[in-house]
Design goal:
Helix content: over 70%
Number of strands: 0
Distance between the termini: 14 Å
Radius of gyration: 27 Å
Length: about 325
């Protein structure tokens, strides 16, 4: 492409589009139709210039012009309760459902890793000795020790808020760090499984694994599922950088990134429920079977929510991305 010739041929159209945009609402019907046609042609011009020539100033000018025209043509839309309802009943569960091929293997492998770490620590006294002194280990694992009093050491409401904040931050880190080629997500996930595995190993070595599981399972089932979903989504986002598929890398990453942002909001709500269970149910005086039953019910409710509502929405074409009018314009790409 001869850029100078191309600019000379189309400059009048760009100037005319800029003139119509400056007139704002004072356009006739014919001028409004002209604005739409010029917007479409200028978007194509921008795509060709981006793919065939390197002129940052011209690209920046046309990008701004196309963005202004798009805002004028499509208008602005305010978020409403309808958007929130659509997100909760379709967007979020569909996004979780569509990413199940990432977070389910993540959950299985992570659980096996935690169990392996727990077995290794529980069956090797020398490993336990490297973690802490024998008296410190007894203080943590004895009846009424630190593992048990941890859940009742603070008022339930403040403890639930603290747990929710910490878990939401961990989930957000998995989602955001996925853009760094997956490695940070694997590290965050490993630290979580290491922490769980240490608890399993130390409490099993003290013959109190049933007590530990009775404290962890009520909230841990839903909490870990949310972490696995976040990690799986982060890994999927990172893999998009490596293999964007049929889309351009920028378009594919934008789609996955918008869906991941929505999932961060949805998972924060899921972790809020988990935090409430951890703050009010786990340290309660309910029998162990009742506390575990509440945790299982919460987990099954979430899975049903994902597979029933999410599966239905995904089959209807929902991806978890924002609605089409709220997306950036996707310009045609030159072959």
């Amino acid at each position: 492409m001869d850029l100078d010739v191309y600019v000379t041929a189309h400059r009048a159209e760009w100037d005319r589009l800029d003139h119509l945009l400056r007139r704002g609402k004072h356009l006739t019907g014919a001028e409004a139709d002209e604005l739409v046609a010029l917007y479409q042609r200028t978007a194509t011009h921008l795509s060709l210039i981006q793919s065939s020539a390197l002129d940052p100033m011209l690209t920046a000018r046309l990008t701004q012009l196309v963005a202004r025209a798009r805002a004028t043509v499509t208008g602005t839309r305010r978020a409403s309760w309808r958007d929130a309802a659509r997100f909760l009943t379709a967007g979020f569960p569909a996004a979780v459902y569509r990413s199940r091929h990432w977070w389910i293997p993540t959950a299985v492998l992570s659980t096996l890793l935690a169990a392996l770490i727990g077995w290794w620590i529980g069956t090797h006294p020398e490993v336990q000795a490297s973690i802490a002194a024998p008296e410190d280990l007894r203080r943590m694992t004895r009846p009424g020790g630190e593992y048990e009093t941890y859940y009742s050491s603070h008022p339930a409401a403040s403890f639930a808020a603290q747990v929710w904040t910490n878990n939401a931050q961990a989930a957000a880190m998995c989602l955001v760090l996925g853009a760094f080629l997956c490695v940070p997500v694997l590290w965050v996930l490993f630290l979580n499984m290491l922490n769980l595995g240490v608890g399993i190993g130390l409490m099993s070595s003290a013959g109190r694994l049933d007590t530990f599981l009775g404290l962890v399972l009520p909230h841990g089932l839903l909490e870990l599922t949310a972490v696995f979903v976040a990690a799986g989504t982060g890994l999927r986002l990172g893999w998009t950088l490596i293999d964007p598929g049929p889309l351009s890398r920028r378009t594919a990453l934008a789609q996955q990134g918008r869906a991941a942002l929505g999932m961060a909001i949805g998972l924060a709500l899921v972790l809020f429920v988990s935090g409430v269970i951890e703050g009010f149910v786990t340290p309660s005086g309910l029998p162990t079977w009742a506390r575990i039953a509440i945790g299982i019910a919460a987990e099954l409710a979430f899975l049903a929510y994902v597979y029933v509502l999410g599966g239905r929405a995904a089959r209807a074409g929902e991806t978890g991305d924002v609605e089409a009018p709220d997306r950036s314009a996707e310009l045609p790409t030159a072959a």
